[in-house]
Design brief:
Elements lengths: L1 H19 L5 H8 L5 H23 L19 H17 L6 H6 L5 H18 L6
Keywords: Membrane, Transmembrane, Transmembrane helix
InterPro entries: DUF6691 (IPR046513)
Length: about 140
């Protein structure tokens, strides 16, 4: 139960940060895909930089996870087609819907009930991937 509260707290903070930074704003996402504003690109760049620094700290200091076990970050497999195809599907979905998976629950919590359609689509897509994953190139 104690761990669940930690995760909920991190989720609430994540939601507040994304809301206050306007990363959940459909208008900001629209601006990004129209190349009209640097706002979202700035947020994404900060996230990438933070991730790079965090991973380097984990790798260099042999940081342990919450259970005390070493965190092992494996190198990605070679091949670019799957990354391009996956990125294309993700980007098209993001552009068409106006939301990536992260803010779905934030928007739901903010009372935007139409996001339930997006949540249903995300769950359906995840389910279909589970059914087809053995037939897809990985």
């Amino acid at each position: 139960m104690k761990n669940i509260l930690k995760y909920l707290l991190v989720g609430f903070v994540f939601g507040i940060v994304l809301t206050k930074s306007e990363a959940v704003s459909w208008y900001r996402i629209y601006e990004m895909f129209q190349f009209q504003s640097f706002h979202m690109y700035g947020i994404i760049s900060v996230a990438i930089l933070t991730g790079i620094i965090g991973i380097q700290i984990i790798k260099r200091n042999n940081i342990k996870d919450i259970k005390g076990e070493s965190i092992e970050i494996l190198d990605k497999e070679k091949g670019s087609a799957r990354y391009w195809i996956g990125g294309l599907f993700f980007g098209l979905g993001w552009a068409l819907v106006g939301s990536c998976p992260g803010p779905i629950f934030i928007l739901l919590g903010a009372g935007f009930w139409t996001i339930l359609i997006v949540l249903f689509g995300a769950l359906l897509g995840t389910y279909l991937y589970g059914l087809l994953k053995n037939k897809l190139p990985h």
